[in-house]
Amino acid sequence: MSGQSTTGQEGGSGGSSKAPASGQLGTFAGVFTPTLLTILGVIMYLRLGWVVGNGGLLGALAVMGLAIGITLCTGLALSSIATNTRLGAGGPYAIISRSLGLEVGGSVGVPLFVSQALAVSMYIFGFREGWLWFFPDHPPLAVDLLTFAVVFGLAYISAEFAFRIQFVIMAVIVVSLVLILASPDGWTGNIRWMGDWEKTVGPGPTGDYWTVFAVFFPAATGIMAGANMSGDLASPRRSIPLGTLSAIGVSTVVYIVLAVWVSRAGTAEELTSNYTFLVDHSLWGPGVLAGLLGATLSSALSSIVGAPRILVALTRDGVIPNVGGVGNVAANGEPRRALIASGVLVLFGLLLRDLNAVAPVLSMFFLISYAVINLVVLVESSLGLESYRPTLALPRFVPFLGFVGCVFAMFIVNPTVSLLAVTVVAALYVFILRRHIGNASDSRSGMFAAVAEWAAARATELEADNPRSWKPSFLVPVQDTASVRGSFQLLHELVSPEGSIKLMGITVKEELEDVTRRMATLTQDFRNKQVFTTCSVLDSTDFETGVVAGLQVLGSAFFRPNVLFMSLVRDDRDSTVERLWRESHRLGVGLALLATHPQAGLGKRALIHVWIPSELTRLPVSVSLEGRGIHLALLVALRLQRTWKAELRIYTAVPSDADVVPAKAWLADLAEGARIPNRVRREVVVGELEAVLQQVPQSDLDMFPLPLEPDLAWVRRSVELTRSACLFLGDSGKENALA
Questions:
Q1: Could you give the CA distance from residue 517 to residue 537 in angstroms, rounded to a whole number?
Q2: Residues 589 and 609 in one domain
Q3: Rounded-to-integer distance, Cα 21 and Cα 337, Å
Q4: Last residue of one domain, picked from the residues 409, 435, 461
Q5: Is 17 among the domain residues?
Q6: What are phi and psi of 625, to 5 degrees?
């Protein structure tokens, strides 16, 4: 791929263009602290009084409520998708590109990288203004360059070191808040509940609700500060939701308390004319000003640490050429060359001396990325992809409100600049699309297939068999439609609502018309249950030959079946079942073999057992599952658990007590990788499998991986031992419960 390399040198030490290995930053240091400090920034210190002065306390709370509501929806969407994806380096870019493709990810990621880098310049300008309050005789450019040198040096040492510095900054900010809230000025006056939304004194825009909202809204952004560090987090799936949402919650409380204090501390004229109101009315002004300096310095640190990691991810995927090895990382995983490239952009911004013209565009790029994050969650949650199993599930209205809110905020803040930003993103999308750098690691193929048939060509190009877009598509061979009606309800439960069924009638010429009519009726019955079902009738000399021919022909279809479903009925069909067992494996089609108990049937549909062979627990999860039927068994079991609202238990029978602890650890790794809910019980029992099957509580359905070689005697023996229906499953190689 153009622009990618596999090796490189970084300052005399070995480096690679691969993304940095996962680091050891925890939730507090890696996500909560940078996110909170980015939100508690310049707007809080210099504009909160102006907001309250215009709208009064209730008006200010209305402004803050809308802004924080949009951010909260986006934070929830970000958290939800982080719990569903093994998120690597790149933060929001990685989320978008994995779901909507490199074209969309790159068109948003490139402006996001530039915005993150140039934002450092804006934060340094803010730091300079506070510094000159202390030392008005210092040359502004010298202050800017020295501040940049400090910020760059801290980030160059390591991200972990930079984030440790933020602990000190957080302490300074906490002290500044104490100095503000401890001042009696805010607890002696009367609350001014409503304002007139018109600034009466001082420079700035004429006040109204939407103007005030536009001024305040940037304070509610900054929630990507932790997500940008996804490649350096020890546990992104846990840290991003916990850290991001905690930071939003704490910052919301801080803003509300400060708004109450401010509303009692000054008149409307004072609040709207004096941007340093909090400094002037605190117990000790220099301490509050130190908090302002700390907030700007912290935001600069977060941005200069996050921007290079987005650049490395963009280079890794070939969106940006690896010119000069900017995508290489040092031996300790630090993207130092990308940091230098980011530093060049920061210096360029500093030399402009005034980013007021550029700042609105940067804000728009941030909002676009937030909007697309919400869109990703909305689309994936709506399509019913089996790979979409976040541990933090959201109602669809949450990402919808987040998406609409971000778009709304863009055009309220500055419609002209919003159109310019959208145009830039669209142009980048077209440019990247023409470079044909897309890969098959995203979920778009499943999305296109689910949305409409016109997307079939595109989905094929993007590999429709991607494990992340897997959903059940059953091929059900039929000789007698009456036999299918016995498993009708189970088939409906296995594929509903987004899966499909292909009924394939096998008959001879004399029965063709009658079978065709009955197949059409059966197909309509499934469709009446909202299951996408098609049927065909194949004239064949015998059942076995017909099924094999159907498998071979349908293998080239776009909506090809991925699981062959059969019911084990009579002993005289053993040779046929065994051949189809082998043939489905050869053709890369999964197999589901149902053996029902003659008396129990499917019982109460209240308890499901999944049995894991003990020999698999001796190898790592990702290795041991390949080709053993566990992937399909887990996907089907999780689906039936939701449909039946049943209890699910995962068992493995080990030969000795010494094997119990390793087996439990293996099952825990499986649960983590496959995102199996905590309510699913994982049991390790000691003893031979046949004995154990008779000891455990009786279930309504037991699921087993198919043996590598057909063994129908064991299949029937399992039904006797479990005293329940059994479903034996063999993987096709295209499904993956860990995807």
A1: 10
A2: no
A3: 16
A4: 435
A5: no
A6: -80, -20
Write out pLDDT tens, residues 24-62: 778 888 889 888 988 888 888 888 888 898 888 999 999
- Measured torsion, CA atoms of residues 18, 22, 28, 34, in degrees rounded to the nearest 10: 0
Q: Render pLDDT for 479-511 as a digit per residue (tens, 0 to 9).
A: 878 778 778 888 988 888 778 889 888 886 657
Residues 576 and 668 in one domain: no
Comparing 643 with 332, the larger pLDDT belongs to 643
**Percent of the chain scoring above 70 in pLDDT:** 87
| CA geometry: angle 671, 81, 382, nearest 5 deg | 105
Phi, psi of 212 (to 5 degrees): -65, -40
Identify the domain containing residue 474 by its residue range. Answer: 470-594
* 643 within domain boundaries: yes
β-strands 647-654, 563-567: how paired? unpaired
Encode 387-440 in three state secondary structure.
Answer: CCCCCCCCCCHHHHHHHHHHHHHHHHHCHHHHHHHHHHHHHHHHHHHHHCCCCC
Q: Which two tokens stand for residue 594?
A: 């149902």
Whole-number Å distance between alpha carbons of 49 and 727: 66
For 632-680, list the strands marked E by DSSP. 647-654
DSSP assigned state of 28: I
Distance CA 319, CA 340 (A): 19
**pLDDT(200) > 80:** no
Give me the helices (H) in 512-629, please.
512-528, 543-554, 574-586, 621-624
**Quick one: 565 and 609 in the same domain?**
no
What contacts 352, CB < 8 A, 6 or more positions away?
A: 121, 358
State yes or no: pLDDT of 586 exceeds 80.
yes
Do the domain assignments include residue 220?
Answer: yes
Please tell me whether residues 87 and 168 are part of one structural domain: yes
Phi, psi for residue 539 in degrees, rounded to 5: -85, 115
SS3 assignment, position 73: helix
Closest CA to 267 of 181, 185, 211: 185
Are residues 490 and 416 part of one domain? no
CA–CA distance, 159 with 173 (Å, rounded to integer): 21
Mean pLDDT of 390-418: 87
Catalogue the long-range contacts made by 686-694 (C-beta closer than 8 Å, 24 or more residues apart): 686/653, 686/654, 686/655, 686/656, 686/657, 686/659, 686/660, 687/653, 687/655, 688/653, 688/655, 689/611, 689/653, 690/717, 690/721, 692/651, 692/653, 693/718, 693/721, 693/722, 694/721
Using alpha carbons only, what angle is made at residue 443 by residues 401 and 669, rounded to the nearest 5 degrees? Answer: 95
Per the structure, the count of domains in the chain is 3
Which is nearest to 115 in space by CA: 321, 323, 355, 461? 355
CATH number for the domain spanning 310: value is 1.20.1740.10
* 548: CB partners within 8 A, 6+ apart: 579, 580, 583
Q: Please check whether residues 51 and 161 belong to one and the same domain.
A: yes
Rounded CA gap, 693 and 111, in Å?
58
289 exposure class (CB count in 10 Å sphere: 0-12, 13-18, 19+)? buried
Residue 659 has pLDDT above 80, yes or no: yes
**If 0-12 CB within 10 Å is exposed, 13-18 middle and 19+ buried, where does residue 353 land?**
exposed
Main-chain phi, psi angles of 558, to 5 degrees: -65, -55
Residue that finishes a domain, picked among 435, 461, 494: 435
pLDDT in tens, 106-158: 888 888 888 888 888 888 888 887 788 778 889 988 999 999 999 998 888 87
Strands (DSSP E) along 660-738, which ranges? 681-686, 701-705, 725-730
Residue 211 inside a domain? The answer is yes
Q: What is the pTM for the complete model shown?
A: 0.68
Query: Buried (b) or exposed (e) across 7-28, using 16+ Cβ within 10 A?
Result: ebebeeeebbbbbbebbebbbe
Mean pLDDT of the chain: 81
Domain co-membership, 490 together with 616: no
Distance CA 738, CA 635 (A): 10
CB 264 within 8 Å of CB 186: yes
Q: At 665, which CATH number? A: 3.40.50.620
For 480, 540, 568, 569, 598, the CA distances from 572, given in Å and listed in that order, are: 16, 19, 10, 9, 17
